[in-house]
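Dear Dr. K.,

Following up on our conversation at the group meeting, I've run the structure prediction for Uspa from Desulfoluna butyratoxydans. I'm pasting the input sequence below exactly as I used it, so you can double-check it against your construct before we proceed with anything downstream. Let me know if the numbering doesn't match what you have in your notebook.
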Amino acid sequence: MDSMLIALSDSMSSKAVLEYVLAMAWCPEDLQVTLLHVFRKQSGGEALMGQKFMKKQPARYMEVLEQARDRFVEKGVPPENITLLMVTEPYDTIADGIIDQARRVNPSLVVIGRKRMSKAEEFVLGDASIKLVRALEGMAVLVVKVS
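The predicted structure tokens came back this morning:
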């Protein structure tokens, strides 16, 4: 049975990931899908938004995961083959969270989105997709690039 872990948020790259995966040819009744959202530690700017704002975030992202699940069900994946995984314990980086959860779930494919970045942005911010490819030995990693 094929299994994939798909890291999602409410970003444009996550929407592109979802559309790309849904357009792929696979046998829906045999597919096991884990839809994942991980939180990273708060930045100073997020802390300034207040606790009320931050408390709403898990519900906001759970809605994203539920909508993605519904799209997979529409494509014929049995609901019992879809796991929603919301990890609210924050990681230092999103990449660290995806790596940790992928090692726990052990899917055959990890799918993430990547927005276009300048060389300077890559240097300063790092590239999560490269970190995943290097860290997840024995797993295929599909990076969907978005402009």
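Two things stood out to me. The two ends are 33 Å apart (CA to CA). DSSP finds six helices and five strands in the chain.

Best regards,
J.T.
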